[in-house]
Amino acid sequence: MNTDGRLVVIVLFDGVDLLDVTGPPEVFSLLRRETGGTAGYEVTLVAETSAPVTTASGVRVLPDATFDEVACRGIDTLLVPGSVEIDGQRRVRAVADPAVVDRVRTLAGRARRVASVCVGAHILAAAGLLDGRRATTHWSTARQLAEEHPAIEVDADPIFIREGTVWTGAGISACLDLSLALVADDFGEEVALRVARQLVMYLKRPGGQSQFSVPLDPVSTTRRVEDLRHYVAEHLGERLGVAELAAYAHVGERQLTRIFRTELGTTPGVYVESARVERARHQLESTDDTLERIASACGFGTTDTLVRAFRRRLGTTPTEYRRRFRPVAG
What we know:
This protein is α/β, with parallel strands linked by helices. It has 14 helices and 13 strands. Strands 5-2-1-6-9-13-12 form a 7-stranded mixed beta sheet, sandwiched between helices. A two-stranded antiparallel ribbon has the order 3-4.
């Protein structure tokens, strides 16, 4: 897929996982559609030769260019997918072909940032690009990565990890989460959220983990509920009890509760708390605001209430969440 925009180079080689290759371009294509063509990437698939590459699924993919042809270009993002082999005892091992590793090492020197998808982290590791960094990969090969590359701090839990200009993603489907994170980093979370809605996906911010992710708000079927949702989002610092929401919607309190259950599958109180936790998560990840300020801005009132909500919803504290999940900027 070639469009005007930042150059994204995706590495191809025989045996590569197909979804690792095709997932990111789908996300980037929706980005262009959601922004009316004002934001986008130029995605180029590259391989050693121009011959079709046979993926692990048997589907053949035609490269757009060779490694040599893109070696002289300025690369915005180098995406490195992965490949595995299964031995006679059904054990999974990641593959890092030395020739591919050499090509990745060379191209990485021309890229603004580098990202691996799934077990592609093993290729980055073999190229020396993860030494001294925290990184993730598919859980089934995390031990292999740690044993073969002791200079890397391997963490198999996160969906993806950003360490400066190097990103690593976990399971195969996490290529979509990683791609959304790249979009958010380049064009903002609001745009990434719109793309995620088209994919009917969670929006995972950099550093987020699966157990700390909540679904996108369900799309309601009535204008009244959409209006209520926007009202909640814009007034999180204010009192948002059933009485206040019912008065805003010009309905009775019982009817409001029925509307929330029917349209959003939850109660007004649970919905409001979830929205406040989401706003607080964002604040913890993107600002240096104190817990007191975040609690006030998000409508919790006190830090104790904020802490209780985080323990209830996420099983952790705001302080621990910030320490673990705030991205490390490059």
